[in-house]
Write a structure and sequence with these properties.
The chain is mainly α. It is 82% helix and 0% strand. The protein has one domain. Helix 1 packs antiparallel against helix 2, helix 2 runs antiparallel to helix 5 and helix 5 packs antiparallel against helix 6.
Length: 138
């Protein structure tokens, strides 16, 4: 029981940290400075997930989940949080007129969301809305 409580607490802290980063990203969008938001997202992905944004965007789609779950040991709850951040970051790339990178990130985000949908026991309307949005964009 202590281990479960500890893991839940870590997830809550990570969710709060990602919410803060997404808020910073939103501010950079509103200020018309998407590049600063991209830098913030990349630094956060490196520090919290040990993953580089450029590597994720260029990664082979067929091996993405295996890489994240096996090599980075990420479970579906953390993957969902990561996907939320990647979704926002893809929007930044879109605003920066870097459509290819945005499309790559949207595709990878969709793969992660699909995996989370398969492995999570709970349904998320918010996640489904993002999936629909991504499908319209790619």
């Amino acid at each position: 029981m202590l281990k479960k409580d500890y893991i839940e607490k870590q997830l809550e802290q990570l969710a709060l940290a990602i919410a803060k980063v997404i808020s910073q990203i939103t501010n950079s969008k509103m200020q018309g400075n998407p590049d600063s938001g991209i830098i913030i997202a990349d630094e956060f992905l490196r520090s919290e997930f040990d993953v580089e944004l450029a590597k994720l965007a260029a990664m082979d789609k067929e091996h993405l989940i295996e890489y994240l779950t096996t090599h980075k040991n990420l479970k579906s709850a953390k993957l969902n949080l990561m996907a939320n951040l990647l979704f926002e970051t893809a929007e930044l790339y879109e605003r920066s007129q870097k459509e290819n990178i945005a499309k790559n990130l949207y595709e990878r985000t969709l793969i992660i969301y699909d995996y989370v949908n398969e492995t999570e026991k709970t349904f998320s309307q918010h996640r489904q809305e993002k999936i629909r949005t991504i499908k319209l964009k790619i």
